Amino acid sequence: MPAVVSLAGDWDIFFREKLRERLAFALTAERCIVDFTGFHGGDATFINELVYAAKVRAARSLPTMVLVIPEDDRMLRRILEVTKLLRVWPVFTSVEQALEAFPEHSVHE
Protein backbone atom coordinates (compact mmCIF):
# COMPACT_ATOMS: atom_id res chain seq x y z
CA MET A 1 0.00 0.00 0.00
CA PRO A 2 1.47 3.38 -0.97
CA ALA A 3 2.02 6.10 1.61
CA VAL A 4 -0.34 9.05 1.19
CA VAL A 5 1.07 12.45 2.14
CA SER A 6 -1.53 15.22 2.37
CA LEU A 7 -0.50 18.75 1.41
CA ALA A 8 -3.81 20.39 2.26
CA GLY A 9 -3.39 24.00 3.36
CA ASP A 10 -0.93 26.78 2.58
CA TRP A 11 2.74 26.02 1.95
CA ASP A 12 4.96 29.06 1.80
CA ILE A 13 8.32 29.99 3.30
CA PHE A 14 6.80 30.39 6.77
CA PHE A 15 5.80 26.72 6.81
CA ARG A 16 8.97 25.26 5.25
CA GLU A 17 9.93 23.17 8.29
CA LYS A 18 6.41 21.78 8.66
CA LEU A 19 6.39 20.98 4.94
CA ARG A 20 9.72 19.17 5.21
CA GLU A 21 8.36 17.16 8.13
CA ARG A 22 5.24 16.32 6.16
CA LEU A 23 7.26 15.19 3.13
CA ALA A 24 9.88 13.26 5.14
CA PHE A 25 7.97 10.02 4.73
CA ALA A 26 7.92 10.57 0.96
CA LEU A 27 11.71 10.34 0.96
CA THR A 28 11.72 6.73 2.12
CA ALA A 29 8.33 5.17 1.35
CA GLU A 30 8.53 2.53 -1.35
CA ARG A 31 5.54 4.06 -3.10
CA CYS A 32 4.14 7.50 -2.38
CA ILE A 33 1.10 9.55 -3.30
CA VAL A 34 1.25 13.29 -2.61
CA ASP A 35 -2.34 14.48 -2.20
CA PHE A 36 -3.03 18.14 -2.97
CA THR A 37 -6.74 17.89 -2.12
CA GLY A 38 -7.41 20.94 0.03
CA PHE A 39 -4.26 22.76 -1.13
CA HIS A 40 -4.88 26.50 -0.84
CA GLY A 41 -1.65 27.96 -2.19
CA GLY A 42 2.02 28.47 -1.72
CA ASP A 43 5.18 29.99 -3.07
CA ALA A 44 8.29 28.42 -4.54
CA THR A 45 8.85 26.63 -1.22
CA PHE A 46 6.46 23.79 -1.95
CA ILE A 47 7.86 23.41 -5.47
CA ASN A 48 11.42 23.28 -4.14
CA GLU A 49 10.49 20.65 -1.58
CA LEU A 50 8.68 18.51 -4.17
CA VAL A 51 11.67 18.64 -6.50
CA TYR A 52 13.99 17.82 -3.60
CA ALA A 53 11.83 14.81 -2.68
CA ALA A 54 11.86 13.64 -6.30
CA LYS A 55 15.66 13.89 -6.44
CA VAL A 56 16.12 12.00 -3.17
CA ARG A 57 13.73 9.27 -4.31
CA ALA A 58 15.58 8.95 -7.62
CA ALA A 59 18.94 8.73 -5.83
CA ARG A 60 17.50 5.94 -3.68
CA SER A 61 16.08 4.17 -6.77
CA LEU A 62 12.54 4.56 -5.46
CA PRO A 63 9.59 4.82 -7.85
CA THR A 64 8.42 8.26 -8.91
CA MET A 65 5.91 9.91 -6.58
CA VAL A 66 2.35 10.21 -7.82
CA LEU A 67 0.44 13.47 -7.38
CA VAL A 68 -3.26 13.89 -6.72
CA ILE A 69 -4.53 17.25 -7.93
CA PRO A 70 -8.31 17.70 -7.93
CA GLU A 71 -9.72 18.48 -11.35
CA ASP A 72 -10.99 21.87 -10.23
CA ASP A 73 -7.57 23.03 -8.94
CA ARG A 74 -6.56 24.91 -12.06
CA MET A 75 -4.13 27.15 -10.17
CA LEU A 76 -1.90 24.29 -9.03
CA ARG A 77 -2.05 22.60 -12.41
CA ARG A 78 -1.04 25.88 -14.06
CA ILE A 79 1.89 26.38 -11.66
CA LEU A 80 3.19 22.89 -12.40
CA GLU A 81 2.56 23.34 -16.12
CA VAL A 82 4.42 26.67 -16.34
CA THR A 83 7.38 25.26 -14.41
CA LYS A 84 7.38 22.17 -16.67
CA LEU A 85 6.93 19.99 -13.58
CA LEU A 86 3.59 18.58 -14.65
CA ARG A 87 5.63 16.17 -16.82
CA VAL A 88 7.70 14.91 -13.90
CA TRP A 89 4.99 13.05 -11.99
CA PRO A 90 1.95 11.02 -12.92
CA VAL A 91 -1.09 13.10 -11.91
CA PHE A 92 -4.51 11.81 -10.90
CA THR A 93 -7.64 13.64 -9.78
CA SER A 94 -8.35 11.55 -6.66
CA VAL A 95 -6.50 9.32 -4.21
CA GLU A 96 -8.79 6.45 -5.17
CA GLN A 97 -7.86 6.85 -8.84
CA ALA A 98 -4.16 6.97 -7.96
CA LEU A 99 -4.41 3.85 -5.80
CA GLU A 100 -6.15 1.94 -8.59
CA ALA A 101 -3.50 2.91 -11.12
CA PHE A 102 -0.48 2.52 -8.87
CA PRO A 103 0.61 -0.94 -10.01
CA GLU A 104 1.07 0.44 -13.53
CA HIS A 105 3.14 3.38 -12.26
CA SER A 106 6.29 1.85 -10.89
CA VAL A 107 8.57 3.95 -13.05
CA HIS A 108 12.11 4.30 -11.70
CA GLU A 109 14.16 7.37 -12.54
Q: Mind explaining what this structure looks like?
A:
37% of the residues lie in helices and 18% in strands. The chain is an alpha/beta fold. It has a four-stranded parallel sheet with strand order 1-3-5-6. The radius of gyration is 13 Å and the shape is globular. Residues 105-109 have low confidence and may be disordered.
Q: Low-confidence stretches at least 5 residues in length (pLDDT < 50)?
A: 105-109
Helix content: 25-40%
Shape: globular
Write down how many β-strands occur, each being a DSSP E stretch of 2 or more residues.
6
Q: Output the radius of gyration.
A: 13 Å
Q: What percentage of the residues does DSSP assign to strands (E)?
A: 15-25%
- In whole angstroms, the N-to-C terminal distance is 20 Å
Features:
single chain; 109 residues; alpha/beta; four-stranded parallel beta sheet; two-stranded parallel sheet; disordered C terminus
Brief rundown of the structure:
By secondary structure, the protein is α/β, with parallel strands linked by helices. The chain is built from four helices and six strands.
